[in-house]
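User: Quick sanity check before I run a bigger batch. Here is a single chain. Can you write out its predicted 3D structure?
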Amino acid sequence: MLGLRPAAARDVPVYWLALLLAVLVTLGIYAFMRSHHGLALSASRDNAAAARSVGVRTARTRHVLWIVVAFATGVVGAVVYCRRRVGYSRPSCSRSKVKTPSGLEGRASTSGWRSVRRASW
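Assistant: Done. Predicted structure follows.
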């Protein structure tokens, strides 16, 4: 394919998919920032008191944005994890064991989330 080595040729569709995804995300963000919710978010960022005075629920807007960004960060982390798993071993990303930086395998814990939730609110 295109005179490339087989390993490089496998990455060509991934490149085009990533480019398409980047363009779609950019257009989606552009459209969102011009929507009602995007304008409310911009007003909340610029001056929260003024935004509240015209009826924008700034606390709710910021909370929803925080949740969306946290979800997107988790999805990106999962994709990176799966990509690394595919490159080095079987392509199964659904295991409950995770590799720690020290190379030891351990079980994922949810107790950290409870402590973060208590500290944040």
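Helices lie at 6-33, 36-46, 48-53, 58-88, 111-120.

User: Great, the batch can go ahead then.
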